[in-house]
């Protein structure tokens, strides 16, 4: 351990690498071999112990579930001089921080965190299975993190033992795999070039290509512990041919490729006919001879190999060889006598590991081909921290100068027990506890030691004008809480599951940090603890978690963990000694789609508090977990797959909550969409016998209508028959404001508040190219509009410039039929009928919780009659105004428009069909009527509040405001828990002055009314206004009932505009299925797939085998139990892989009967029951509504009576 501590400060002698591969391609076996080479485990246990798989479920399933790190010390001097002692020079030693990451698709998030911390990666590929789907996925993740990769072709022994290939066939197979890997690299390179709109330069991509002659490819067998690393193997070839060392470079370049060695001329020539390439001549032929001798028990040849390789056979091996030789001598029929598999593998390991040592080749590959932290930082930091180029000390950081600020990135938090100095497993042993968290971190600059105080970095737009500092909304933090300080309690090195404390961490080190905030309160009680956990759970899906703190700094972050240590809300943090340092962007989560959802509850209601705490801890420990709370009070746990879900439930039960938990049946997320009809439906022709939606006759799916039907009667029109009309062509909204009857057929809806304010709205289907653009750029757009973080592709632009570029790209896509890229748009000359200008001005984007919706504004005169459009108010508002917090308070009608956008986002996150997010919907505000004398909508002067005034107001009312914030934040399902905790606050609130009490009573009354309006909408008023920066501009104490009515009525107006007959659709998750099976079970496999709505894309036979490779797509809802069905039908002879592919709209209308006339319904040949039985979207909607406790069309017998028959007379 002392030797490792000596190398920590030598940054140029550090290599941070991780294993990337498809599942079961040999990552953990390779890591075992490397660990055994430094003496941590026995060489005999290598490949069997699976040292880094320290969880019980990992050992049981034989797969890696959680990424693990270990530090290994490698010395070239010791490897080249076996007889030397450990007195090698200090600078010759290299510290290799190795991270073993999972290969299963359910745990792709672990790959992202590992890639973020590392500078290089070992891409392991099974030569038999080849490039698999997860191989492509992990390579893409490494590319996006700008991590250099090297290629390891593993399991070469299978080509000999299983496929019986000749050396030449194996060589062609390996050449093909190298070409496929390079094709993936080139594809990723071209995507990036197209993203930047640059001219492709092939020479730039060649530095990323794999070439064995360049020393970035290794051929190995981890099970037999040998590898061929050409720069190392060329020495053996040169000695055999008698070539001087000066010509080794020529031999190295010729050893891979179409070159052969001519014995006659003693020269290297190009292969023209059937000559064997040099790699076959000097490498593969020799390896094949060794395997052939062992398989045939050629004792003489084995003895020669042992003598040539200086191998000392064990006494057991010598005895086996003598016994075999004696049997062959006495009985000539035993010439082909074969050893047992264990004896065979043991003998091959002994011979080959001494001739071609595995660890020596892999270590040299890492040291020679992968960059050190200094070299990597100059290339990586710009990509993983786009704003760093504008940082003043950027040059000091990349050059690692002594006065450079401390910068470290936390990729995730690991559960641990610091009293035993080890990470917790999935099962606690002895007196182990899972109460602590350590930060899995990488130091990029500066030195970190125990007792240091660092800041949690937040994004700040450094290009904001100095005069805008007073335009701060009340929900932003003040100077004191703007930057949270964190103390370093311990600095530790990770050795698998063990933690070893060190004095300091230096640049390039991967360490575990024990953190705590400076405001640790050891006297916390259970009441406050439960409140804090519940407030945190409510804020998990909100991108403005930093705005969800209370006026005193928010819920106590220390209370979330039971040992008062830091428990991050964000799960990815950047810490620095300079509070102005920009934070790193979150790791890439493209494949992290939490599509499997279950509802959970404790078996005993009294354990609810423990479950809440356990959920908070699980959320911190697993970056892939998502938690949601339904209106019914259910707690929803979303995971990436069935194995991931099983692991989460196990950890929640055994580690974090430590209580028995009930879990519902699996269900899959969907998205609610809309389509544009070619011909508008005349509403008066449709049958009135069919309700729309079908469950409307049972009970309204809108709780607001049932609670406030009388109060909303004049403000929100619920029924199509409710419009006031004097003739058939015109409909009067308010005096002098008329709309046409045709506008109703086009889906125009509106709401009004008395005669002072009217808003008209329509809903459209989003262009596919725009939808694809939002999907591909969702990460950048979320950071831009919610946090003000400028994306990497807009490097050098201000916040306003970036918002303007996004708006321009969306406008172009809506005007073209071009396919978008992640960077922007390729314009085409053909323009569609509607574009950005046709729909008006872009006001808002909704991306939270998987939504993909846009909000536009325009004054559309064709919907209004008698020149009524002249009465509409022209709103001067832009997309930049919606999300630029620095100037939003100085704009006219800012409060009004912010509440409109808030209502739009609320509606987008909870659709009317199943309360699932909306996707591909464009809401267009067709006009706004606003009475200029309306005093309910604040003016710029009244809505602009100085920063100092806000700060004084916070301190004055912080205690009571915490209560109001808590009461409004909690959903109704928290009422039973919170009732016993709020009495003390109410008593204290009654002690205020009479004048203050009067004001507070008025506010409390308003908030009570607001809660009735919004409380059942799936989010509390306090939470609702924080879905975007434009939503957070409104002061809690300055809100009036009208402002909340605008927000809630806008939400319900969006829902009504969406719920048009014949236009509703749903999207479902489509998974990509890659399956391999033998020919004799192919028919049974197809029988299973056909029952699950599977679409076959391709079917091929793997070269040289009878194995079929099937590529298909399957709905996620049909994938449950697939593994059991396939393996039972194929008797286990099937390998398959499922991963997220895309969202796909189901073409069928869920409610086809609502678009029919009376004559169509009464047709003798029409059977509505048969129609609905084959309607898949209808089944999915009814299933989800029933699970969520929403009203369905299912008829329930209220008072059943048992029928008595004459036969039984009972």
Automatic annotation (TrEMBL):
One of its GO terms (molecular function) is GTP binding. Residues 12-246 form the Tr-type G domain. Residues 1014-1025 have a biased composition (Polar residues). SUPFAM superfamilies: EF-G C-terminal domain-like, P-loop containing nucleoside triphosphate hydrolases, Ribosomal protein S5 domain 2-like, Translation proteins. Residues 700-724, 947-970, 985-1025 are annotated as: Disordered. Keywords: Elongation factor, GTP-binding, Nucleotide-binding, Protein biosynthesis. It comes from the Eukaryota. PROSITE patterns: G_TR_2 (PS51722). Residues 702-712, 985-1010 have a biased composition (Basic and acidic residues). This is Elongation factor Tu, putative.
């Amino acid at each position: 351990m002392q030797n490792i501590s000596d190398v920590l400060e030598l940054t140029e002698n550090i290599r941070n690498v991780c294993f990337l591969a498809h599942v079961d391609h040999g990552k953990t076996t390779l890591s075992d071999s490397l660990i055994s080479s430094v003496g941590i485990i026995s060489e005999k246990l290598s490949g069997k112990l699976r040292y880094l798989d320290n969880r019980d479920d990992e050992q049981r399933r034989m797969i890696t579930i959680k990424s693990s790190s270990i530090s290994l010390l490698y010395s070239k001097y010791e490897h080249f001089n076996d007889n030397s002692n450990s007195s090698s020079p200090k600078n010759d030693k290299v510290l290799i921080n190795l991270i073993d990451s999972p290969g299963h698709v359910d745990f792709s998030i672990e790959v992202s965190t590992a890639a973020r911390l590392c500078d290089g990666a070992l891409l392991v590929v099974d030569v038999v299975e080849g490039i698999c789907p997860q191989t492509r996925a992990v390579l893409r993740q490494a590319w996006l993190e700008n991590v250099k990769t090297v290629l390891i072709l593993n399991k070469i022994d299978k080509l000999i033992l299983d496929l019986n290939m000749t050396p030449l066939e194996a060589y062609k197979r390996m050449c093909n795999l190298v070409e496929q890997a390079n094709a993936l690299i080139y594809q990723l390179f071209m995507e990036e070039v197209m993203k930047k709109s640059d001219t492709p330069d092939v020479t730039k991509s060649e530095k990323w290509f794999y070439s064995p002659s360049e020393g970035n490819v290794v051929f190995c067998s981890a099970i037999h512990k040998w590898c061929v690393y050409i720069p190392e193997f060329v020495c053996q070839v040169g000695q055999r041919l008698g070539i001087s060392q000066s010509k080794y470079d020529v031999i190295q370049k010729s050893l891979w490729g179409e070159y052969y060695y001519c014995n006659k001329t003693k020269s290297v020539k190009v292969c023209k006919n059937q000559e064997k390439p040099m790699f076959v001549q000097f490498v593969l032929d020799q390896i094949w001879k060794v395997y052939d001798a062992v398989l045939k028990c050629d004792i003489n040849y084995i003895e020669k190999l042992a003598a040539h390789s200086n191998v000392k056979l064990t006494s057991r091996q010598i005895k086996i060889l003598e016994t075999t030789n004696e049997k062959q001598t006495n009985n000539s029929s035993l010439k082909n006598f074969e050893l047992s598999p264990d004896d065979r593998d043991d003998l091959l390991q002994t011979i080959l590991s001494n001739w071609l040592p595995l660890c020596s080749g892999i270590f040299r590959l890492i040291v020679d081909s992968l960059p050190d932290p200094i070299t990597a930082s100059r290339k990586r930091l710009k990509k993983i921290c786009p704003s760093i180029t504008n940082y003043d000390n950027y040059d000091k950081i990349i050059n690692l100068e002594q006065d450079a600020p401390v910068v470290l990135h936390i990729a995730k938090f690991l559960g641990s027990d610091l009293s035993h100095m080890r990470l917790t497993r999935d099962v606690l042993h002895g007196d182990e506890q899972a109460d602590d968290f350590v930060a899995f971190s990488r130091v990029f600059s500066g030195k970190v030691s125990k007792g240091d105080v660092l800041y949690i970095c937040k994004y700040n737009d450094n290009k904001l004008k100095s005069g805008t500092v007073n335009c701060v909304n009340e929900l932003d933090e003040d100077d004191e809480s703007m930057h949270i300080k964190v103390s370093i309690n311990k600095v530790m090195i990770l050795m698998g599951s063990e933690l070893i404390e060190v004095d300091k961490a230096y640049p390039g080190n991967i360490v575990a940090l024990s953190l705590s905030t400076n405001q640790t309160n050891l006297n916390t009680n259970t009441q406050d603890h439960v409140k804090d956990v519940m407030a945190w759970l409510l804020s998990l899906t909100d991108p403005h978690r930093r705005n969800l703190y209370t006026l005193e700094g928010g819920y106590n972050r220390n209370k979330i963990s039971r040992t008062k240590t830091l428990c991050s809300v964000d799960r990815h943090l950047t810490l620095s000694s300079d509070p102005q340092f920009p934070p790193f962007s979150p790791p890439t989560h493209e494949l992290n789609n939490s599509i499997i959802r279950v509802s959970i509850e404790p078996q005993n209601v009294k354990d609810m508090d423990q479950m809440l705490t356990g959920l908070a801890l699980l959320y911190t420990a697993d970056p892939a977990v998502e938690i949601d709370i339904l209106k019914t009070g259910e707690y929803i746990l979303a995971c990436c797959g069935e194995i991931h879900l099983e692991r989460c439930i196990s950890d929640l039960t055994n580690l974090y909550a430590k209580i028995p938990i009930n879990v519902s049946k699996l269900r899959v997320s969907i998205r609610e969409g809309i389509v544009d009809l070619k011909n508008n439906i005349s509403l008066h022709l449709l049958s009135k016998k069919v309700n729309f939606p079908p469950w409307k006759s049972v009970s309204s799916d809108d709780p607001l209508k049932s609670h406030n039907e009388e109060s909303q009667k004049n403000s929100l029109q619920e029924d199509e028959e409710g419009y006031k009309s004097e003739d058939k062509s015109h409909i009067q909204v308010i005096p002098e404001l008329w709309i046409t009857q045709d506008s109703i057929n086009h889906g125009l809806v509106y709401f009004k508040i008395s005669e002072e304010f009217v808003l008209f709205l329509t809903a459209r289907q989003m262009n596919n190219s725009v939808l694809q653009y939002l999907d591909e750029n969702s990460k950048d757009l979320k950071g831009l509009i919610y946090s003000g973080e400028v994306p990497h592709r807009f490097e050098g632009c201000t916040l306003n410039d970036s918002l303007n570029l996004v708006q321009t790209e969306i406008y172009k896509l809506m005007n073209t039929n071009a396919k978008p890229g992640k960077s922007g748009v390729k314009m085409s000359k053909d323009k569609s009928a509607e574009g950005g200008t046709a729909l008006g001005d872009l006001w808002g984007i909704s991306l939270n919780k998987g939504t993909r919706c846009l909000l536009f504004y325009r004054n559309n005169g064709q919907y209004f009659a008698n020149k009524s459009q002249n009465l509409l108010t022209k709103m001067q508002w832009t997309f930049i105004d919606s999300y630029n917090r620095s100037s939003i308070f100085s704009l006219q009608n800012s409060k009004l428009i912010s509440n409109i956008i808030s209502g739009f986002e609320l509606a987008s996150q909870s659709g009317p069909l199943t309360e699932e997010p909306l996707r591909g919907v464009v809401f267009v505000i067709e006009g706004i009527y606003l009475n200029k004398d309306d005093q309910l909508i604040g003016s710029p002067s009244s809505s602009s509040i100085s920063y100092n005034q806000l700060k004084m107001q916070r301190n004055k009312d912080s205690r009571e405001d915490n209560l109001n914030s808590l009461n409004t934040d909690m959903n109704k399902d928290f009422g039973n828990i919170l009732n016993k905790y709020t009495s003390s606050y109410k008593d204290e609130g009654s002690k205020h002055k009479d004048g203050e009490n009067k004001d507070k009573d008025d506010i409390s009354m308003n908030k009570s009314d607001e809660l009735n309006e919004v409380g059942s909408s799936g989010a509390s008023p306090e939470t609702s206004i924080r879905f975007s920066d434009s939503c957070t501009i409104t002061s809690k104490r300055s809100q009036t009932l009208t402002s909340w009515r605008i927000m809630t009525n806008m939400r319900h107006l969006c829902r009504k505009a969406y719920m048009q007959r014949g236009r509703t659709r749903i999207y479902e998750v489509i998974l990509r299925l890659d399956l391999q099976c033998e020919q004799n079970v192919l028919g049974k496999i197809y029988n299973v797939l056909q029952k699950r709505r599977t679409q076959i894309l391709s079917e091929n036979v793997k070269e040289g085998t009878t194995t079929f490779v099937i590529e298909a797509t399957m709905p996620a809802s049909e994938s449950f139990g697939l593994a059991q069905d396939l393996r039972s039908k194929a008797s286990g002879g099937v390998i398959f892989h499922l991963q997220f592919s895309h969202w796909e709209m189901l073409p069928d209308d869920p409610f086809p009967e609502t678009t029919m006339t009376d004559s169509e319904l009464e047709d003798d040949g029409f059977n509505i029951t048969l129609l609905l039985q084959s309607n898949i979207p209808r089944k999915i909607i009814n299933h989800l509504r029933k699970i969520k406790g929403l009203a369905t069309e299912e008829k329930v017998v209220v008072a059943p009576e048992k029928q008595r028959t004459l036969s039984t007379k009972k």
